[in-house]
């Protein structure tokens, strides 16, 4: 089965999908819409995955006009590759282009914020979203929150929705002592370490997170912050740290290779995300896999995973004071309470976030879509 996997850029998520899917009977062809300049993933794709060269994929392409300008080139790709199936997302970029091509079967995949944020930008974005949904044959999402949002925009039938958390490698993201070297390197062996790995963008609430940490630190000077990543708000982040005298208690190692990421989770006492919108966050699942208590935004997708006081805490979106209260509750746990929460989080990850198991749902969807009669009669 020849599959054209069409994605916005090349990220760790794309790597994880493609590596798992590049097994018989699937022949995976990877088409990249843009290169926005951020090195999301450094690992090369296995030789079994055929990277499609075309006019796109070489520079930023951020607007609908830029995407639609590439439609003739995209249609030429379809003529060359002759796929049996297109797997495309995000919805309004790659998904829209695949839908406009008229190709079937089309598996449309949401990346979370495309539906939870972008679909409500304005009427034009809502129309693009509905068009892509209405011309797809199956819809893939990672949470009930995203599924319900799609179905509020279009009466998409449940039997054409494939829902599963993208999941994690449980053999890698597990409790361990690998984080001790991080603690020794920073000199924070006796401190309580907060970990953030989200991109430095407004959507992910990096400004809220920094102010939250500042407030909490005033009450608990044993707190320290590992602030991984980078993004367009880099100058704002670095300025905040300098202006508030936080350089000795906030460590910014940059974009950490995925092979080293687990050691940072294992070094952490608390994982925190102040994102304003999310599907099922992979970094949150990685924290659960390692057993780290979670402080995250009180939004529906996070409530699917976090029960306050049981395996983490939830803070109000955009409210540093409420987040700081949650962070201090996490910081003040006793050793026994922390151990119980770590066990609960690991058990939850094993139950619901096993990537090796969850990817099977997508493989089954591929097989179902190429069977005769599988294409929706109203598609297109």
What would your notes on this structure say?
- The protein contains 16 helices and 13 strands.
- The protein has 380 residues and is an alpha/beta fold.
- The chain has two domains: 181 residues, Glycogen Phosphorylase B (Rossmann fold); 173 residues, Glycogen Phosphorylase B (Rossmann fold, 3-Layer(aba) Sandwich), CATH 3.40.50.
- The strands form two sheets. It has a seven-stranded parallel sheet, with helices on both faces. The chain has a six-stranded parallel sheet with strand order 10-9-8-11-12-13, sandwiched between helices.
- Helix 4 packs across helix 6.
- The mean pLDDT is 95.
What amount of the residues lies in strands? Answer: 15-25%
The major sheet is characterized as: 7 strands, parallel
Please state the structural category: alpha/beta
Overall geometry comes to globular
CATH superfamily of the largest domain: Glycogen Phosphorylase B
- Trace the largest sheet across and list its strands: 3-2-1-4-5-6-7
Number of structural domains: 2
**N-C termini distance:** 22 Å
Provide the succession of SSEs.
EHEEHHEHEHHEHEHEHEHEHEHEHEHHH
Q: What is the CATH architecture assignment of the largest domain?
A: 3-Layer(aba) Sandwich
Q: Tell me the helix content.
A: 40-55%
Q: What is the residue-mean pLDDT, rounded to a whole number?
A: 95
What is the count of helical runs?
16
Number of strands: 13
Q: What radius of gyration results from the CA coordinates?
A: 21 Å
CATH fold naming of the largest domain: Rossmann fold
Low-confidence stretches: none
CATH class of the largest domain: Alpha Beta
């Amino acid at each position: 089965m020849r599959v054209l996997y069409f994605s916005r850029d090349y990220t760790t998520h794309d790597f994880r999908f493609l590596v798992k899917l590049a097994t018989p009977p699937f022949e995976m062809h990877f088409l990249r819409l843009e290169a926005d300049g951020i090195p999301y993933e450094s690992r090369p794709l296995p030789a079994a995955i055929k990277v499609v060269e075309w006019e796109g994929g070489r520079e930023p392409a951020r607007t609908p006009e830029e995407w639609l300008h590439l439609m003739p080139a995209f249609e030429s790709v379809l003529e060359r590759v002759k796929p049996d199936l297109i797997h495309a997302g995000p919805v309004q970029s790659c998904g829209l282009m695949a839908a406009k091509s008229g190709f079937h079967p089309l598996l449309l995949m949401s990346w979370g914020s495309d539906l939870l944020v972008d679909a409500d930008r304005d009427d034009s974005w809502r129309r693009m979203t509905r068009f892509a949904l209405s011309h797809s044959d199956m819809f893939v999402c990672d949470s009930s929150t995203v599924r319900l949002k799609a179905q509020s925009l279009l009466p998409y039938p449940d039997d054409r929705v494939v829902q599963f958390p993208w999941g994690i490698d449980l053999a890698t993201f597990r409790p361990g002592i690998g984080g001790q070297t991080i603690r020794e390197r920073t000199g924070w062996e006796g401190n309580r370490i907060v970990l953030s790995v989200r991109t430095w963008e407004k959507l992910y609430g990096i400004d809220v997170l920094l102010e939250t940490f500042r407030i909490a630190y005033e009450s608990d000077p044993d707190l320290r912050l590992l602030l991984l990543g980078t993004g367009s708000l880099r100058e704002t982040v670095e300025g905040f740290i300098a202006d508030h005298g936080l350089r000795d208690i906030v460590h910014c190692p940059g974009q950490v290779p995925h092979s080293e990421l687990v050691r940072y989770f294992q070094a952490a006492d608390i994982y925190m995300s102040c994102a304003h919108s999310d599907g099922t966050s992979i970094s949150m699942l990685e924290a659960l896999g390692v057993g780290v208590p979670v402080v995250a935004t009180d939004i529906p997708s996070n409530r699917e995973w976090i029960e306050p006081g049981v395996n983490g805490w939830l803070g109000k979106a955009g409210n540093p004071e409420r987040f700081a209260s949650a962070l201090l509750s996490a910081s003040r746990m006793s050793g026994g309470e922390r151990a119980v929460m770590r066990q609960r989080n690991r058990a939850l990850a094993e139950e619901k976030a096993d990537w090796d198991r969850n990817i099977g749902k997508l493989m089954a969807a591929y097989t179902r879509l190429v069977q005769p009669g599988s294409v929706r009669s109203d598609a297109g």
